[in-house]
Amino acid sequence: MDKEYAKKVSDFNQWIKENGVQSMQIEYPAIFTNKDGYNYPGIVAREHIPPYSIIVKVPSHIILNTQTAYNSELNPLFKLYPEVFSPCAAAWEDYTLISYIMYSMAMGDKSKWHYMIDLWPKKEDLNVFYLWSDKEIKETQSIRVIKDNLHENKCLRDSWSNLGIILNKYPQLFPCKYATYDNYLWLWALLASRIFNSYISTTAFTPYAEYVNHENV
Length: 217
Description:
Elements (H helix, E strand, L loop, with lengths): L2 H16 L3 E2 L2 E8 L5 E7 L10 E2 L6 E2 H5 L4 H6 L1 H4 L6 H16 L6 H6 L14 H6 L3 H25 L13 H14 L9 E2 L12
Antiparallel strand pairs: 1-4, 2-3, 5-6
């Protein structure tokens, strides 16, 4: 673990401790390697964990969910665009969270969520289908994969054009450095791979618990 990453981990662990996150019989980080040889951080058990055991408790105030984002200081802006940021709009929860995270990124360490965001894997470290390069897609030699990738990327470009045109109207909230298509792809990939929405009523990033990788549960 390099010094920069170790510092981020230390800051993150201190932040979750100060905010009441409790972990039992587990610790972070541990580096796993999947079947494709890709390395990624996760949580490792320190001892045998019986079935149905509680391994982590995360207070609700530190969970970044759609409700928190929508009711934030960006709420007046969200209300101006109900066609994008209200339940009547498709993917409104994703757009709301992504917009709020871009806003939080611009705040730097003044953001409540800085230490969580700062530790998220970078775009180039995410092995997500629609982030593959053209070369990687062609190497699959699969017509279906190539078509699916083209379709997915077109959908993402179209959805960003709808969201980006709004965010770019407010550079004081969403500086051009952060409100970019590249960051949009990165955050969309994080939403696809890290959120909890099966057991709670809203889309949510749950600090620490999100490092319990699916294939290692």
